[in-house]
Amino acid sequence: MQQILEVQNLKKYFSTQKAVDDISFSIQKGSIFGLLGPNGAGKTTLLRMITGIFYPDEGQIMMEGKKFDPENDVARIGYMPEERGLYKKMKIGEQAIYLARLKGLSREEAMHRIKEWFVKFNMESWWNKKVEDLSKGMSQKLQFVTTVLHNPSIIILDEPFSGLDPVNANLIKDEIFRLSREGCTIIFSTHRMEQVEEICDHIVLVNKGKKVLDGSVKAIKQEFKEDLFRISFDEKVLPEHTAIHLFQVINKMDQELIIKKTEGFTSNDIISYFIHKGLTIHSFNEILPSLNEIFIRQVEGTTLARQFEKV
Hints:
The chain is of the alpha/beta class. It has two domains: 3-222, Rossmann fold (3-Layer(aba) Sandwich); 226-287, Alpha-Beta Plaits (2-Layer Sandwich). The protein has ten helices and 14 strands. It has helices at residues 43-50, 70-73, 92-102, 107-120, 136-148, 166-181, 193-197, 217-223, 267-276, 291-300; strands at residues 3-14, 17-28, 32-36, 58-63, 66-67, 77-80, 154-158, 185-190, 202-207, 210-216, 228-233, 247-253, 256-261, 281-287. The strands form three sheets. Strands 6-7-8-3-9-10 form a six-stranded mixed β-sheet, with helices on both faces. The chain has a four-stranded antiparallel β-sheet with strand order 2-1-4-5, with helices on one face. A four-stranded antiparallel β-sheet has the order 12-13-11-14, with helices on one face. β12 and β13 (256-261) form a beta hairpin. α3 packs across α4 (107-120).
């Protein structure tokens, strides 16, 4: 796939704080890219450099193989910041038109696109309301619409689901998938890592200004798996139905085991063992770590198995 954006050794300092400390990564065109990390990790500073709001102290940003030019390239980006960038006293319809015109749309084209989006998001009756009268979730929907109106090549969404109920969160999620299928590149920034697992193709995880992880969601989860399996049975598992040479029992319940496979053996070896013991296996599933668990392990040095250990 073609790279649309590349970040090369970016650094940004505020007084003595290293907000972004030598971070590099690349983003493929049409992908949904997750920029993850806890609050204060440096995510927003990175996004503000990518959008030309901040200039890096060191390093550079490349867009489609050329050095990022704020004068021209910013117009190809739609940025939805975590902080609301809306004028509270303006009517919603007027504000949407105003922001679309700033992105280069004619009034006629702006009106056409706004009406399409307002119908899609059930916002037609909002036209003459003021932003200050909107709930946080309604404001979030409006901000999403004004971010994508000019059909940008790159859409940056900083905590896009904040304040949204499940129905409206799914509405925006569906639009993110549709825009990606149509070739738009989505950069999704959040500290809620569970949201990313169902949305993103590729992630970069940052902490204290440094890059901690970089890769596809699937590859990272495979890299950090610990050969843990959850096995449930149709009958009670007796103590003698365990084989130390094949696996270690991490936790045992009446009809379920959490085990860690011994190196050199396969999951088929374990299944065969229980079948030969006369047990009926109801389910056999590998336990893969979540991105949140992986991050905690990276920062704190914990293991996935620990959370399943018997107390």
